[in-house]
Amino acid sequence: MANNGLLIVISGPSGTGKGTICKALSEDKDLWISVSATTREPRAGEIDGVNYYFLSRQEFLEKIENDDFFEYAEVYGNYYGTPKWKALEAIYSGKDVLLEIDIQGALKVKQQYPEGVFIFILPPSMEELKKRITNRGTETEESLMRRFKSAYHEMNYISKYNYAVVNDTVENAVDKIKAILSAEKCRVDRLKEKILDSEEVEIHE
Amino acid sequence: MANNGLLIVISGPSGTGKGTICKALSEDKDLWISVSATTREPRAGEIDGVNYYFLSRQEFLEKIENDDFFEYAEVYGNYYGTPKWKALEAIYSGKDVLLEIDIQGALKVKQQYPEGVFIFILPPSMEELKKRITNRGTETEESLMRRFKSAYHEMNYISKYNYAVVNDTVENAVDKIKAILSAEKCRVDRLKEKILDSEEVEIHE
User: Fold this and answer.
1) Residue A88 CB: number of other CB atoms within 10 A?
2) Choosing among B166, B186, B195, B201, which should be mutated to test the A contact, i.e. which has the most A CBs within 10 A?
3) Residues of B in contact with A164 (CB under 8 A)
4) Contacts of residue A182 in chain B, CB cutoff 8 Å?
5) Is B121 helix (H, G, I), strand (E, B) or coil?
6) Coil, helix or strand for B71?
7) A chain contacts of residue B159, beta-carbon cutoff 8 Å
8) Tell me, what's the ipTM?
9) Which of B119, B146, B163 has the highest number of chain A CBs within 10 A, making it the mutation to test binding with A?
10) For chain B, percent of residues with pLDDT exceeding 90
11) Residues in B 103-162 with any Cβ partner in A closer than 8 A
């Protein structure tokens, strides 16, 4: 019996650098990276299954009907969603799945797959987060403040997560996430069936 | 405010190699190794606080009275115990404490300090455990069989532990335990107060 893989959900306020961390983690060939689905047209160079799963509107609606998404939204007439069926396919085949998603999305994933490993990425400090959001440039003072307040508000959701990882450097954060995966695979809750089922012991009396 | 250290309890049936693993882990200078207390006389070369804490019978009895031991036993007229006060002192000063203990002892520690990290060391297989117990030599067939059956019975206690680590090689087992410690330090349950208390954020409106 193959063991199920883990669903690792990397999430956190904007500006904490979760995208960079996931990019670094995705170099690990044993991780299956979750790709979003969309009904919008592929742009030049975009590859189905790499950038997005490109679905027709009809296909997307059927998948909504089948409860095939962890979450989805319609934006400017196009649907975007996080495919549950793809993640579960990989998990049941023993692969660990990495899913980068915002906080609202992560909470929806958790409702449907509470056995996932939910990791909240933290900035080294709120001052540093402010700096990072500001350094993205181009935005007005007002919109920066809105973003920052929203990030600050989102910090409250940390209690819904299993782990919090401070993104002081990408290397440190990646090491910690790898340690979390390694530890989760040793959790008795996850191992119990495997151990107790797999042992054939002969006691010669 | 310094964070409390972790209490890491390494335990498992005899013959799984937990002693070797703890010896390897104890090379990490950041870990404080729990040392037993005893009323027996020090032997030549034994150092107080290194091999044992050597206590007078009077001191030991007072400490029992004060609930200062996780567990203790009287063996051939001498007391032996696992000092709770020493472990807590180290933990409250921010040090991680490593405690190697048999299964009955570990269960007593868990009752008194459930926030510890309880790690069960597993042999690669029950066949391998049998081989290891047998290779210790010198014992009769009957006593070997009793040891093996007791180890087999002790496997049932795995469900009381947080983690199970297979001792296929000492290096692998040590790496996994280090990953567990690193992960445990990221657990939101443990971090919450630290994060939510330590941030002073100014929002300029």
Assistant:
1) 18
2) B186
3) 186, 188, 191, 195
4) 175-176, 179-180, 183
5) strand
6) strand
7) 188, 192
8) 0.86
9) B163
10) 70
11) 119-120, 122, 125-127, 145, 148-149, 152, 155, 158-159, 161-162
Q: What whole-number distance in Å separates Cα of residue A56 and Cα of residue A107? A: 27
Q: Average pLDDT of B129-141?
A: 77
Interface touch A179/B176, C-beta < 8 Å: no
Strands, E assignment, B128-184: 163-166
Are the C-beta atoms of A106 and A18 separated by less than 8 Å? no
Decide if B55 contacts B39 (C-beta within 8 A).
yes
Contact B158 A127 (CB under 8 A): no
Alpha carbon dihedral B140, B142, B146, B151, in 10-degree steps, equals 60
Q: What is the mean pLDDT of each run of 10 residues along chain A (205 residues)?
A: 86 90 89 94 94 96 96 94 94 95 95 97 87 75 84 91 96 97 95 54 41
Percentages (nearest 5) of helix, strand, coil residues in chain B: 45, 20, 35
Domain positions in chain A: 7-34+96-198
Summarize chain A as % helix, strand, coil (round to 5): 45, 20, 35
Range A7-34+96-198 classified under CATH 3.30.360.10: no
User: What is the 8-class DSSP label of residue A48?
Assistant: B
What are the structure tokens assigned to A92, written together?
């049941």
CB proximity A33 to B under 8 Å: no
Closest CA of chain A from B4, distance in Å: 17
CA distance B186 to A100: 18
pTM, full prediction: 0.88
Look up residue B81 and give its DSSP letter: E
- For B43-72, how does the pLDDT look when each residue is reduced to its tens digit (9 = 90+)? 999 999 999 999 999 999 999 999 999 999
Two structure tokens written together for A46: 């975009």
Question: What are the backbone angles phi and psi of residue A178, rounded to the nearest 5°?
Answer: -65, -40
DSSP string across A100-164: E--HHHHHHHHHH-TTSEEEEEE-S-HHHHHHHHHHT-SS-HHHHHHHHHHHHHHGGGGGGSSEE
In terms of phi and psi (left: phi > 0; alpha: psi -120 to 50; beta: otherwise), the region of B199 is beta
CB B99 within 8 A of CB B34: yes
- Positive or negative, the CA dihedral A165, A167, A170, A171 is negative
